[in-house]
Amino acid sequence: EVGRRLKLSRERIRQIEERAKQKLRLMARTRHLKDYLN
């Protein structure tokens, strides 16, 4: 649905989703590290 509306391929949608997940994982790790160091 989203890909069709934005005229993006399934592969491009998958890439965008994967990048977003990686960013979320990095943010979670950073938060844990900040909590540990404080």
In short:
By secondary structure, this protein is mainly alpha-helical.
Structure explained in plain terms:
The protein is mainly alpha-helical and 38 residues long. It has one domain (2-37). Helix content is 87%, strand content 0%. It contains 2 helices and no strands. It has helices spanning 2-6, 10-37. The protein is rod-shaped, with a radius of gyration of 15 Å. The model has no long low-confidence stretch (mean pLDDT 91).
Features:
2 helices, 0% strand, 38 residues
Structural class call reads mainly alpha
Strand count, sense and barrel status of the largest sheet are: none
Distance between the termini: 44 Å
Radius of gyration: 15 Å
Report the strand count.
0
Tell me the series of helices and strands, N- to C-terminal: HH
Low-pLDDT parts are: none
Quickly count the domains. Answer: 1
| Number of helices in the DSSP assignment | 2
Q: How much is the average pLDDT?
A: 91
Label the overall shape.
Answer: rod-shaped
Helical amount: over 70%
Strand percentage lies at: under 5%
Topology readout:
Elements: H1 2-6, H2 10-37
